[in-house]
Amino acid sequence: MSVSQLSHCVYQGCEGQQPWLSIIIPTFKRPSLLREALASVLAQDAAPDYQVIVVDNACSQDTLEIAKELRSSRVSVYHNLENVGMWGSMGIGIAVASGEWILILCDDDLLLPNALGQFATAVSRNQKDRIGCLAGGTLLNISEDVQPILKGRGDCVQFPFVAPQRRADPFLVPPGTDFLEVPKLCSSIFRKEEILRAGGWDRECEGYADLAMFLRMQKHGLLYGSTEIFGKFGVHSGNESNLARIWTNYPVTAAEILFTRYLNDGSPSSDRLRHRLEGAYVRALWTTRLSTSLRRQYAGEVLAHVARTKFNYPLLSLPWLLELLAMAYRFARPRIGTIFRALRGNLPKHLTAGQE
Description:
The chain is of the alpha/beta class.
């Protein structure tokens, strides 16, 4: 289908411009978060020329009103005629984007104040190589409704790759290099031409479409990392990575497609990433509130499609053990977190200074 059959423009920014970067913001019924995301974009310091394309998947009037309030010639708004999902909205944004580079900013994420200037500077430092994707560090914005056991004071930073000891910035992430974390879209830019060459996001991978694209870029020698921190990723109970929603947002069959298409080279790094993803399903089975019948069904699915490690096999084949683990986890986790934070507060300052 063409873009005109899926979406229509209801608010047009400056036409005819050829920006360096197109920022695509897919949104769905979260006007307050969208307003914050847009504000973080429009407040950029020393930024290269850019445009903002908001793709509303719910045809919400709020989105149009927010754009009108901002009165920015950089911002355009598209309303989808039907629900095409987050990845479909991204595809629409890419199809209408004019920039050489693409940045996907989900409506619950933010850009740090000088992110766009840092992106442009990093790319300009390396003119000899063809960069298909540049991914840097991300500040995690942990909401109060999320209580990880080891949550410290303030935010924490994730870097997706280990920088080589002797390197320029940006640095190549060669095939076979381990991912410390899956890079976040809010801290990554893609060359539009390479996204189109890949055929866009692999939507058969469902929630793993971003990881599939990063792995494809890495396989073709186009993935580069940076030690700069670009974006702020929202960690809250409603976002896609919530383990309680893993069965709908990250179907086991989608993981199997990801493994088959992008993690089938038998390299140690692919095996390690595969085991980490398998582990997410196993953890979800004993941390998520499920009925015994659902737990047995999901355990069977994971066993059939994904988990083939020696550790996972006996655990998944005993649903009653998973049920006991789930009960123990629900009882112990809030108490462990409280005890840890209490102890941490009583430790000598020289022992906790490096953990801030």
